[in-house]
Write a sequence for this structure.
């Protein structure tokens, strides 16, 4: 008998008890199952019934690096105030269990923004119900609109004005329409304006800001549509965009970037050299590649054929805080390049799960790194 077909003693007892029941009761009526027949059985915990391990974002309080907000793709938001020794769930009472991103106001640790709806495109993706704001460090949240976005990729708070927030909204996965593109609020989320719109199938999947000048932003758009039988993963709506007025207006950057249909694009700025911008670009038939711009995004050069193993699930990149030539790519096995994206290799998965989605590097200590993964 194979292990999977073995009967437990409890199951054997249950079967024997059922077989011992008379086929008919008194006067020919159907037999009854009494509680005593099952009294030997005991309830036991079979574990959770939902996937909730995947971490998609880690936001660390810029003033207290012991305080982290951790976003789970299917498990809400968790907070630690002791550098990960203990965690508490802080988003269980609100409208979405699926989280796309979380951000702490750079000048006010008490203000925390949460964008709901995981920003990935596989089959098991939960959708969100908009953007939320906390003014008390996560003790309570208020929903601040963007209700039909369903999937929020990034939230950027202007360091000069806490009421000015820019959001990259990917939009619904299983249908067209909804709130897609780049949205801007100047009143703390009371009202929103869409400042970048491509089409009803294309949303914004990444957003990065020049650390010297918050008016300079780069965004990537991603055209996608999930169907039961396939994923329409890309199209002419995917591209790279630049704003020099804090997200008010955008222009597409195409010099050196392949034309035609593209999939998901990940962006990163080198903190120590902000005119150096990197992009990992998904293209048809596995022809994707890694691109660099040394003139603040105005023109691009292909440095290698590297792209993550499944762009609809990964395609996020981060640059080392100190070395502008060291780049980390979220992938099944976390990837690293130490020559500006020309060659790549595994960073190592010792003592951790694979399937990497989130990265944070301590600006005061580049050897201190947090990685969020499916485990």
């Amino acid at each position: 008998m194979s292990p999977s077909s073995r009967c437990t003693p409890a199951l054997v007892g249950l079967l024997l008890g059922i077989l011992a029941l008379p086929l008919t009761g008194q006067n020919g009526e159907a037999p009854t199952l009494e509680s005593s027949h099952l009294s030997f059985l005991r309830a036991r915990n079979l574990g959770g019934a939902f996937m909730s391990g995947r971490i998609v974002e880690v936001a660390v309080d810029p003033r207290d690096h012991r305080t982290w907000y951790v976003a789970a793709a299917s498990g809400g938001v968790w907070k630690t105030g002791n550098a990960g020794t203990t965690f508490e769930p802080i988003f269980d009472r609100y409208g979405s269990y699926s989280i796309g991103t979380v951000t702490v106001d750079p000048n006010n640790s008490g203000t925390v923004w949460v964008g709901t709806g995981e920003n990935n495109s596989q089959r098991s993706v939960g959708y969100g119900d908009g953007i939320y704001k906390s003014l008390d460090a996560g003790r309570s949240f208020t929903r601040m609109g963007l209700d039909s976005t369903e999937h929020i990729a990034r939230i950027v708070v202007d360091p000069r004005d806490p009421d000015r927030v820019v959001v990259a909204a990917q939009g619904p996965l299983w249908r067209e329409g909804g709130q897609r593109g780049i949205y801007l609020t100047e009143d703390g989320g009371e009202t929103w304006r869409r400042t970048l719109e491509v089409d009803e199938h294309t949303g914004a999947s990444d957003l990065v800001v020049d650390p010297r000048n918050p008016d300079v932003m780069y965004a990537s758009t991603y055209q996608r549509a999930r169907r039961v039988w396939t994923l329409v993963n890309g199209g002419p709506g995917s591209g790279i965009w630049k704003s020099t007025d804090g997200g008010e207006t955008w222009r597409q950057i195409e010099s050196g970037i392949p034309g035609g249909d593209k999939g998901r694009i990940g962006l990163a700025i080198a903190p120590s050299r902000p005119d150096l911008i990197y992009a990992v670009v998904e293209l048809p038939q596995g022809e994707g590649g890694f691109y660099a711009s040394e003139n603040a995004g105005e023109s691009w050069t292909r440095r290698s054929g590297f792209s993550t193993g499944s762009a609809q699930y990964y395609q996020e990149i981060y640059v080392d805080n100190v070395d502008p030539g060291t780049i980390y790519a979220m992938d099944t096995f976390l990837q690293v390049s130490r020559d500006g994206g020309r060659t790549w290799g595994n960073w190592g998965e010792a003592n951790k799960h694979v399937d990497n989605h989130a990265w944070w590097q301590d600006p005061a200590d580049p050897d201190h790194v947090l990685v969020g993964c499916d485990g």
